[in-house]
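The material for today's practical consists of a large collection of protein records. Getting from the letters to the tokens is the skill we practise here. To make this concrete, we reproduce a full record directly below:
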Amino acid sequence: MSEKSGPGLSLRRLFRRKQKDGPEMVMASNPPTPDLPAHAPPAPERAGARPDPSPPPGWADILPQFRPHAAWLGPAEFADHRARLLIEAEDFFFRDDAPSLGAQLATAGCPADIAFVPPRFIRRAADGAADAPATLARWRQAAAARQTTLTTAETGIRILCLADHRLTRRLTEALAAPLEAELGAKVVIEAACLPPAPILLSDLIFRDWFAPDATAPAFAAIDAALARLREASLILADDALPWLGASRAVTPVLSHAMVRHHAADRLVLRAQAYTRHHDALPISLAAGRTLPPASHGAAMRLLGQYLDVPVFRVLSDPSLAPLSPECDCVLAGSGQPARADAVRDALLAFVRARPLRRVALPAAPHVAAAEPARFGAVLAAQPMLDALAGAFSHFVLAGPDASLPYLRQQLRALGKTWLSVERLDAPEVADAAAQGACLVACGAWGEVAQTMPTVALMPIGQGGLARGLGNAAASLGAPASWLESTPDADDWYCPVPRRAWTDQEQTTLAEAQRAARPGRRRLA
């Protein structure tokens, strides 16, 4: 057996650098900044130019509430000779008070254009003061990256479904034809398996504002997904997305501090394309237990505002209605035609009330991606992984390469051998079984037919499952202890409320899960 060749990607050293050495920013949805007209290339920097070193002292007296979160960029750096005052704010992309604040500055003799930016955007020196030259460079990168590109491709309506694929498959043909008749344009419906809305919004802001010029291959999967978001005419979201495993749910999220969380190497991932290279990125952790149901709905609305794209929210399980009261369509009944018809009728009413932008269409019509129905990840406990690495000489690691890099590191350090596979029916698996290998399912699995010793860290159901471990079972501990709660990191953008789930919310979720999955699938 030999280790399967990985992508050979490592950005950790890049993202452990000080923030001043990190990548810069972009904002796709904000209007063009005053210093750059739409569709124009950025103005070349003048040799030796620097921001005005001394901002007028009066501005902080006029707007004292913003002083700790602001940076002054002097007028000498801009073609229109107007200063910019950048202000960090969580609600930066839907603030509408920049003109009135700018008028206050002008009245006091400190004219400047106000621009709101995301938290952590302003670069700072060691003493905490705003680093104007570094912030100006980041601001210019944002302005350049925001310029749009005209397209000559076929245009129409592009709907991105962030929904369970069981629902998406039923809706595709039922929705496309009536929507085309209603809108008078070709309609393409795509499905994507993406993180819950709070994490997706944070990752989008990371790529738009903090790392627009980072072109490393590890960003390829994320960028492909985010491009589909930006190009959507409408987002159809299934509000069942965040519910599964809320108490122990964990979602990887790009760190706005450009650092990789110490526990990120122990993430167990499903086979969603979005996380294909997460082992080589600055990943932080978002704990599901701190994101109550209301946060998901609020974040989905903010995501639509940020992208300037309407969001149509479907609740596919009516028993969860108390947790998500503001959906646009709540499905009732189990008949497939009735469910599809309910969404079709509600969506037609939705689009009649608001215009949908026409965008460039992909070549393939009515696409449904071959990905998991749900985005998912859990966090494996380090003691269990250490014990597992020492318990066997050979391993088969089944699942995404980005899943559980910590285990691979331990096996390499101990001189163990392993085979990485994405499918358990690969012929090499049988050869490995004959050599006494232990199968580690590093992803989501239902039935596993192999008879070799097996450890499944993300089976269908709660907790881990084990089979045929013999004497090694005692050192691994009970399967219920194999996963741990996620640390509650705060180095990502989360403008929605964070708190623990209430007992009633947990009970409602548990009852819905039991009703949806009456029989628990176990390893064969």
About this structure: The CA atoms of residues 158 and 188 lie 5 Å apart. Residues 1-53, 518-524 have pLDDT under 50 and may be disordered. The longest strand covers residues 155-162.
